[in-house]
Design a protein that fits this description.
- By secondary structure, the chain is an alpha/beta fold.
- The chain folds into two domains: 2-80 and 186-238, D-Maltodextrin-Binding Protein, domain 2 (3-Layer(aba) Sandwich); 86-182, Periplasmic binding protein-like II (D-Maltodextrin-Binding Protein, domain 2).
- It has ten helices and eleven strands.
- A six-stranded mixed β-sheet has the order 2-1-3-10-4-11, with helices on both faces. The protein has a five-stranded mixed β-sheet with strand order 7-6-8-5-9, sandwiched between helices.
- This is Phosphate ABC transporter substrate-binding protein.
- It comes from Mycolicibacterium iranicum.
């Protein structure tokens, strides 16, 4: 069994205890931060198990590809919820008070699979009748705190980032401010293909939900994947224009 992991998401599959857990399950791992290649591999149903952005899983389902099913999802470090609110951040001295004050602004995002920095602003703008690509000047930045640092140093004017990450560095509240938010986002998911035996699915799920991430982890513990937890986010993504 092959486990393909998005390395941006912080699951340390090559470190103990995960290296031992997966070896004991007969699972080999590969990591990538090349999301287009991950998507192509998943579309070909090559990996048996995938840790991937929730938006990419939604794209599969929207294309009527049901080969993979959700197994586990990350939770918030702060609340333990499967919801991972994303906040719109600008510098503290920026006069903007909401997203409506930012037309044409440079905007930092991680990639086009990122729930927080790509899909969340697209959803907020779509509610106003605006398109993400026409409203912002999109600029790729380093992920997570790197996005916030890009706002602080003026590389970009704004970004959206998981609220947990903004709160994890107390000085962010001194140098930046939150001027908007999207509360229905959910985080990355572990999905399993049709060929994964039920016994392995259960053992892997048990390992995921009983694992306790370290204090520097991006996310909280895993929880069992439930369709109802992602329903609101999926519905908002389905309302986006073609091309997302």
């Amino acid at each position: 069994m092959e486990f393909l992991v998005d390395s941006n998401l912080g699951l340390p599959v090559n470190e103990k205890p995960w290296s031992d857990i997966l070896a004991g399950l007969g699972v080999t791992t590969s990591l990538t931060n090349d999301l287009p290649e991950l998507d192509r591999s998943v579309a070909r149903h090559e990996p048996d198990i995938v840790f991937m952005p929730i938006s990419d899983f939604h794209r599969l389902l929207a294309a009527s590809d049901t080969y993979y099913r959700g197994l586990a999802a990350v939770t918030s470090k702060l609340t333990g919820s499967s919801k991972l609110p994303s906040v719109l951040v600008v510098r503290k001295d920026d006069p903007a008070e909401s997203i409506s004050d930012l037309p044409g602004a440079t905007f930092g995002y991680i990639n086009t699979s990122c729930s927080s920095s790509y899909f969340c602003p697209a959803i907020l703008l779509n509610r106003r009748g605006d398109d993400l690509h026409g409203f912002f000047d999109l600029r790729a930045t380093a992920p997570w705190q790197g996005q916030i640092d890009a706002v602080i140093d003026g590389t970009v004017r704004a970004t959206m980032v998981v609220e947990d990450i903004w709160r994890a560095t107390p000085s962010n509240a001194d140098t930046t401010k939150v001027i908007g938010r999207y509360d229905d986002a959910t985080g990355a998911v572990v999905v399993v293909g049709d060929g994964v035996p039920e016994g392995l699915r259960k053992r892997l799920l048990d390992a995921l939900v009983t694992w306790h991430p370290g204090p520097d982890a991006l996310f909280g513990p895993f929880t069992r994947y439930r369709d109802e937890d992602v329903a609101a986010f999926f519905a908002d993504m389905e309302r986006l224009p073609a091309g997302f």
